[in-house]
Design brief:
Blueprint (H helix, E strand, L loop, with lengths): L1 E2 L2 E2 L1 H10 L3 E9 L3 E8 L2 E8 L4 H19 L8 E9 L2 E7 L10 H4 L2
Antiparallel strand pairs: 1-2, 3-4, 4-5, 5-7, 6-7
């Protein structure tokens, strides 16, 4: 899996099989069920979420999370959220989602900030 921010070679190979155009370099979060990684996909900065727990409960939650990201594209919330950058991919039990990261908190003076 990932330890101390390093992606082990077997997991890196599985990610490469699911996302051949991805170059992941940093582990942002590891809760034992999913990894959140940063890197590039198809030359664009990206955050890659990888479901690593094969438990059917978590496998069922992953598509629900993708549905939420798609709903945010139709009706954006007042706070910045990541956007799906590519269609989710499944290779065996490995499920991945590629998100376009946002730059950080909403800037003062922006419409979203004025709504608060």
């Amino acid at each position: 899996m990932a330890s101390a921010g390093v992606i082990d070679p077997p997991l890196r190979a599985r990610i490469r099989a699911a996302l051949p155009d991805a170059q992941v370099d940093t582990v942002l979060h590891d809760n034992g069920k999913a990894l959140v990684l940063s890197g590039t996909v198809a030359g664009q900065r990206a955050v890659v979420k990888v479901l690593v727990d094969p438990d059917p409960f978590w496998a069922g939650k992953f598509p629900a999370e993708i549905t939420i990201y798609r709903a945010f594209e139709v009706a954006p919330p007042p706070a910045p959220v990541p956007k799906l950058q590519h269609q989710p991919r499944h290779v065996g039990p490995l499920r991945t989602a590629v998100l376009r990261p946002f730059a950080g908190p909403t800037a003062r003076g922006s419409p979203a900030h004025r709504r608060r």
